[in-house]
Amino acid sequence: MSEKTAIRLENLSKTFGRGKKAVQALVNLDLEIQSGQVFGFLGPNGAGKTTTIRLLVDLIRPTKGAAFIYGQDVRRNPGVLRQVGALVEDATFYGYLNGRENLEVLARTAGNYCPKRIEALLEQVGLTGEANRRVSSYSTGMKQRLGIAGALLGDPKLLILDEPTNGLDPGGRQEMRVFIRGLAKQAGVTVFLSSHLLHEVEQVCDRVAIINHGEIVREGSVSDLLAEGQAQLRVQVSPQESALQVLQETWEVSVDGEWIIISAPPEESHLVVERLVTNDIHVHQVIVRKRSLEEFFIDATQEGVITQGSGGNMEDDHV
Amino acid sequence: MFNLLRAEWWIKAAKNYMLTSFLLGILPVGFASLIIIFTIMGYVSETMRQIPSAFSTGLWTSDMLSIWAVVISFPGNLFGRMMPLAFMAVGFAGEYQWGTWKNILPRNRRPMLIASKLVILITIVMLSLVLTSLIVGVGWSLSHHIHDLLYGPAWSGEVLVEFLKLYAQTMLIGLFSLMILGGFAALSAIVTRSILGGLLLGFFFSVIDAMSLGALLFLRNLLQVPELTNLYQYTPTYNMDNLRYWFIHGSANTIVVPGFTAEPSMGASFAILIMWVIGLVGLAILIFQRQDITS
Fold it and tell me: Closest approach of chain A CAs to the CA of B2, in angstroms?
């Protein structure tokens, strides 16, 4: 395996408990993530995101299969995790210590203590002014930012972040997205980002995998996933009856109140309008509805397969 | 290793003021307070003036050494080991409570962390006991002096050398006691993953060890197996007592108990204690290495 592959999961399975109480958290997970990517790991609560991350950083033992980081089995060669920074689930620290002391403990424990690095990271995550406050008095968002700083202490090549924007306000979330993209773009850090915030993943990630009931149901680049399935054109016209007759000669159409829904890609919108106008039909509005990642996610997690046109969550573009 | 020790001592333990001052400060502060109170009471009446003599052995050497009995000898160790045990249990189980084990990557650094925790926690308890014995020695000397009471032995090079030798030997036994206690604490905390659970299970182990002779005698009579009492020679409590006997009397501690015939040498007791320490710490590390960190 080349150095280009940052993470490889091979037939990874995890069952908690035994006998009747056994809970299968992950089922034969296979996944490969290339270096330099920001990879989104999407799934509803309880889907197996955190379990996958815990297996990746060797906090728990797999029931079957293996996790590889830069070609090294993390259980057999745990030293490879020196190249990894991780924020697993909520950021947790010693409440009686202040932010700076907590980072010092982490750095000394990991054997990479450097006071300048700690100060730089505190600055980077915007906690310099709060560094001398006890962590027990921090807000969830501040703890998350300190957690990110902790994950970056060892200057990692691979950063694993489990719901990193939890507890952050909208401004903080935006900053975090820019920060994560910056890490990948400027420092070449590979980022594995677990989230249930689809908008966040759509904005930050190059590729995504969707996990549900411990299985990966879809994987691909964000743009490919969004392009999957046909987009819809929605037109408001008069008279509607004539328009239906004209359009159904070429496209699949249906009616939704005042709207005619046409199964056609956005690039055919001008053909639709042209057909209507040449048949003396008045066109009041044309809307292109793209498939959003959210819709894709709901389809994938609810049914395990992709369905089309479930409506509701599409994004509108007025033409 | 230096970085780990520094993180454990100067940052984690020293800055956890409440825990450290309550569980370990209680001994030196408690003894200092008692000595001050009894000294002041001595001014009230002639009868009360004799109080320092009643609570002290009248010898600074014995008074200073007696402090170590709280972790070494039965029955003092039955409850005397509770505070150090609580301190160590919190040291280990606290990581579960704070949810901080997951921050330590990679996994193979965790045994080092357990080892450094043991070193630091034991060192702090040792320092607390040394400080307490100094307070007791100096405190009772002053108290006796203030009230014109006799307090010996008189200072001389010979007395000092003999005392320091005995003190070092007692500290060594104390160190074994604390290492075994640390093993109990680590094992209990790792198995139960909670401070309270770690404390209760650790205390249970400690009590079983301290009262093992009684338990063996009970089983001996119940099962009608006369040799059962001889198992006592393998317990930490007996071997610490045996070492003390060897240091003071130059012979094995031949306790007069039905069925007990063992007379282990000093070397055998050392070996048994070392095996206990290695066994307990090793088991704790083994369980910890196989444990899923899910919180």
Answer: 9
